[in-house]
Amino acid sequence: MGERIGVSDEEWALIGSLLPPEHGRGCRPAGDNRRYFEGMMWMARSGAQWRLLPDEYGKWNSVFRRYRRWVEMRFSTLCWRR
């Protein structure tokens, strides 16, 4: 499970423009969408529990909350339509 999952710069140029912008919550700055997206890809590939997400992708709970926000916003539907 230690293999890094990432997207190329070319792939990110396509994907990143589809993601909603994130704003910090309170005094905390928003985390990097690319790193969080790669964490979500790691989860999809590994099938592991969220708590086992490697630290290099960010705090598991932050990645999970962003994932839930994107699901609620129907991000995947928007991606497939473009």
Structure commentary:
There is one protein chain. The chain is mainly alpha-helical and 82 residues long. Helix content is 51%, strand content 0%. It contains four helices and no strands. Helix 2 crosses helix 3. The longest helix is centred in the middle third of the chain and has 14 residues. The protein is globular and about 30 Å long.
Please provide a brief summary of the model.
This protein has 82 residues and is mostly helical. It has helices at 9-16, 33-46, 60-72, 75-81.
Main sheet specs: none
**What overall geometry do the principal axes of the alpha carbons give?**
globular
Total number of helices: 4
Q: Tell how many strands the DSSP assignment holds.
A: 0
Descriptors:
51% helix; 4 helices; mainly alpha; 82 residues
Q: Which helices and strands occur, and which strands form pairs?
A:
Layout: H1 9-16, H2 33-46, H3 60-72, H4 75-81
Helix pairs in contact: 2-3
